[in-house]
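User: I'm writing a tutorial on reading structure tokens. Could you give me a worked example: one chain, its sequence, then its tokens, then a sentence or two explaining what the tokens reveal?
Assistant: Sure. Here is the example chain.
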Amino acid sequence: MNINIPPIAVVQADLEALGHAEVQELSRLSGVPFTTLWKIRGGITGNPGIETVRLFYDHIKSAKKPAAEQDA
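And here are its predicted structure tokens:
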């Protein structure tokens, strides 16, 4: 488990790099509701709890599709 949580601006930027389907996959992998992730991504939730971020942050890279799949 990652105990080093980056600043919220970094978390939001990492989430913004994900598309809709990738955020859905992140939700599936982490157990954090899609709507929660989407609100953090869009800045609606500007100060998510650290435990929420801990649940999903380590899964962001796993949720991202390879570039070849994104173009398809």
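What the tokens reveal: The longest helix spans residues 20-30. Helices lie at 8-16, 20-30, 34-42, 50-57, 60-63, 67-71.
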